[in-house]
Design goal:
This protein is an all-beta fold. It has no helices and twelve strands.
Length: 136
Amino acid sequence: VNINRVAIFTKNVTANVGITLTDSAVYQYSTSNNSTITQLTDKTTAVTCNGRTGQITTANTSLASGRSVSFTVNNNQIVSAKDVVIVNIASGATTATYTVTVTGVTPGSFIITIGNNSNAAAADTLVINYAIIRVN
């Protein structure tokens, strides 16, 4: 078992000694095609991050309590609006409770929305992980 890989199978999988795949599968080495970017200016600034997986470090600008902001991630790995983007906060949420969601996917980009669910404004620098699952 190699723990540096991520595999998603849709059907007909045999996984005892070897792995047999039929039909569709997403198989991604976590160390290849990985991209990182740091957002400039503020949390609404668009970024370009062209990996199938990656990390986006947000700007540390303030986000008011109960508010949300969105930014575009330009990414040439998104080939269809049917592609699925998974996001989560890896680190940085020290003073507030945040939500991070994907609110749009189009060929060449996706949109991330960050919400501040705390009772006060917060100016954390968040590190957001993402992974793209290509859907045929």
